[in-house]
Structure to design on (758 residues):
């Protein structure tokens, strides 16, 4: 194991040892499927569903909206129900253009989304199996890598975000095919670009970026190696980047367009959810210094993004041994990536990330440095596979030495676990659960001892019963360790909890409808929902559904003032902040303008109070008042603000406006759809048509068939200047960036097809 060249070290041997014949791709796939079924049997059968955290309140409602749009025959470019309207497809994480989203578009929800997530975990395991098999030529070690990657705490934590699960599912495949592309060229470049595009369409930019960092690092190690055709490698790498970019242009162009108009910049929010300084202890003791939520789940203090960073104590031990035993540039690179991921995940608690952010300012767009742990989650299983593969190699330390190393490494791990437990007992945090931490650690110790014990008995490549059983048992122990390392990591509830229509059954009140009115969660209720202390999962989630929290309003088709969007339109967010920056502030004029007909009852979270002074979505006849942004925002919260009488427009819009005062005008008819609003307006003099929908440059207006500019009304919404008399007004959503990107993607796809057929 001294070379990185893709020869015998990179391809499985033609005649594998007899013991290896038990770990064929088909058998590993069956075993991995059995492990996933054992972990989530009721979910696989459709009886239960994931719901916890973002899966239930953000991911599932987004998928539901996409599903409903698909069956209406619409491409969901715009979401009119959340944040007074917000781009949908351009959010990227909605996976609107991800080809395999047809699984949950065609099949019944919520089972199809649960199956979709678990299928991508299965994909992740197979990808890691084939990647490790190519690098090591050892199917048994490849099986360990695949199992460890799927059943790590980091991977399982991502089940609450389907798009993250998709990105992790394709991660090893991207690295595998990219390596083959720059080594072999030809159709391999097209295949690698297609798989890289699939990962990018998942909408998990951090995982995508880290994947590219990984395979670019591997490309560099090959590039500087001896005997490689550097010119071909450069050409193939450039082709891979260009083809991948072309294939995903339909998604990336509207995404970057939205990013420019969103609230995100390098300093839009402070850094959040970094791994604590002692967080590395959780690599061996999962519950060390973790607090228990009212729902009885555990999180690190100060880091609530990932529910676990545990990768498996035995896998970590094997990874250290693999780094020590195998002298390859690839192994050293993986070890460096793992170490960098662990250090950078500390964020401001370490010393490297702040300096790196100064050198690479674009890192400021991200908020969660803990995501660097994905580098470690990818590299550690591969390093562990190298160690186990070394048991059957004739190079490196002797078999007796390797067994002694395993024993010594296991002893060191046990000492570290004991030391961590001593610190947990001697210096507890206020909400530590010592007994839970101790019992959980003892279980990790037992699994570690048994796994290392069986591994120490390996060494013969022949298919003796003991050798075969030992290998199967190690795989089972690794999977069991991942399934049980933290209590209730991915809880489930009966699938009926996600059925639409619950709000009207519970509230028994008229639904706010798109084009008419909106609901609004009060600031106080929003805070109570965010910090919910309801211990029963079912009651907690049921209450959030009645309260329409986060994006749960999408399940009911109820428009809402706020919502959950990764990228929110900047001006709309500033207006929303006027309503939610203080629990004591009331802005009745602004709420009237936004059409709020239902609001959380005073002092209540689940009860709704009616409002009767709200305005419809479209109004006409107001007097234009020209002001700068600061003056407009101040006026919106003024007690004298009356959206029936006045509309605030930016000063630079004065040249486009013919109206001068409040006039008598009315809307004769209107048709409001998701991507189009059509009205017939009658006015005695030039006037302003105001639409209380978020302003975004993709909306285009026509008056009597003539294009006219859409002005920003009341800082963040829409206004159209209409002439005297009767006029027909159409406001249409047209995302130029999407259609240009779609053309580029289509041309690239045709080019790929032509290249493959040559």
């Amino acid at each position: 194991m001294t070379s990185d060249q893709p020869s015998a070290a990179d391809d499985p041997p033609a005649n594998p040892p007899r013991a290896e014949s038990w770990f064929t791709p088909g058998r590993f796939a069956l075993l991995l499927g059995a492990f996933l079924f054992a972990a989530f049997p009721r979910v696989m059968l459709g009886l239960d569903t994931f719901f916890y955290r973002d899966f239930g309140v953000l991911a599932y409602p987004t998928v539901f909206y996409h599903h409903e749009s698909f069956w209406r025959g619409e491409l969901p470019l715009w979401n009119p129900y959340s944040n007074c309207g917000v781009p949908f497809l351009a959010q990227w994480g909605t996976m609107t253009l991800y080809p395999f989203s047809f699984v949950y578009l065609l099949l019944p929800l919520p089972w199809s989304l649960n199956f979709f997530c678990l299928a991508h975990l299965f994909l992740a395991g197979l990808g890691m199996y084939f990647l490790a098999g190519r690098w090591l030529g050892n199917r048994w070690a490849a099986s360990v890598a695949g199992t460890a990657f799927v059943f790590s705490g980091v991977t399982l934590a991502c089940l609450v975000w389907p798009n993250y699960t998709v990105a992790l599912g394709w991660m090893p495949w991207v690295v595998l095919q990219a390596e083959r592309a720059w080594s072999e060229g030809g159709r391999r470049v097209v295949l690698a670009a297609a798989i890289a595009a699939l990962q990018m369409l998942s909408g998990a930019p951090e995982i995508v970026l880290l994947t590219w960092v990984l395979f670019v690092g591997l490309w560099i190690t090959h590039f500087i190696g001896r005997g490689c055709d550097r010119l071909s490698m450069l050409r193939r790498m450039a082709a891979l980047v260009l083809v991948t970019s072309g294939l995903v242009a339909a998604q990336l162009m509207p995404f970057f367009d939205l990013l420019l108009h969103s609230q995100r910049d390098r300093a839009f929010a402070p850094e959040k959810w970094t791994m604590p300084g002692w967080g590395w202890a959780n690599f061996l003791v999962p519950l060390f210094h973790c607090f228990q939520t009212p729902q009885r789940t555990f999180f690190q203090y100060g880091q609530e993004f990932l529910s676990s960073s545990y990768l498996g104590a035995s896998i970590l031990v094997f990874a250290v041994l693999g780094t020590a035993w195998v002298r390859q540039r690839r192994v050293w690179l993986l070890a460096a990536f793992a170490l960098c991921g662990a250090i950078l995940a500390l964020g401001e608690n370490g010393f490297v990330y702040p300096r790196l952010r100064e050198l690479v300012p674009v890192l400021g767009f991200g908020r969660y440095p803990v995501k660097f742990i994905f580098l470690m989650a990818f590299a550690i299983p591969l390093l562990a596979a190298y160690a186990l593969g070394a048991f059957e190699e004739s190079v490196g330390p002797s078999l007796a030495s390797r067994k002694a190393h395993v024993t010594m490494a296991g002893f060191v791990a046990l000492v570290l676990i004991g030391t961590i437990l001593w610190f947990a007992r001697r210096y507890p945090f206020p909400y530590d659960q010592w007994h839970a931490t101790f019992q959980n650690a003892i279980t990790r110790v037992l699994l570690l001892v048994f796994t290392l014990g069986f591994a120490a008995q390996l060494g013969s490549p022949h298919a003796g019963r003991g050798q075969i059983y030992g290998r199967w048992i190690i795989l089972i122990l690794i999977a069991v360790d991942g399934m049980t390392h933290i209590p209730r990591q991915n809880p489930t509830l009966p699938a009926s909890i996600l059925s639409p229509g619950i709000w009207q059954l519970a509230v028994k009140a008229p639904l706010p409808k798109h084009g008419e009115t909106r609901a609004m969660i009060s600031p106080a209720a929003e805070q109570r929902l965010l910090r919910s202390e309801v211990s029963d999962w079912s009651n907690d989630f049921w209450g959030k559904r009645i309260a329409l929290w986060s994006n749960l309003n999408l399940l009911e088709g109820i428009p809402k003032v706020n919502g959950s969007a990764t990228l929110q339109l900047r001006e709309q967010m500033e207006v929303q902040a006027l309503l939610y920056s203080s629990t004591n502030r009331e802005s009745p004029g602004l709420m009237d303008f936004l059409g709020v007909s239902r609001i959380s009852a005073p002092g209540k979270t689940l009860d709704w109070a009616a409002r009767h002074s709200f305005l419809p979505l479209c109004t006409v006849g107001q007097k234009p008042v020209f002001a700068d942004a600061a003056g407009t925002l101040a006026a919106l919260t003024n007690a004298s603000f009356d959206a029936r009488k006045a509309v605030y427009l930016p000063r630079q819009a004065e040249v486009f406006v013919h109206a001068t005062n409040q006039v008598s005008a009315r809307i004769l008819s209107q048709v409001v759809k998701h991507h189009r609003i059509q009205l017939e307006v009658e006015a005695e003099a030039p006037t302003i048509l105001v639409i209380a929908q978020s302003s975004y440059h993709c909306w285009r207006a026509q008056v009597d068939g003539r294009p006219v500019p859409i002005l920003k009304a009341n800082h963040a919404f829409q206004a159209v200047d209409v002439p005297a008399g009767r006029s027909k007004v159409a406001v249409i959503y047209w995302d130029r960036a999407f259609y240009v990107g779609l053309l580029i993607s289509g041309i690239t796809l045709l080019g790929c097809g032509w290249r493959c057929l040559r």
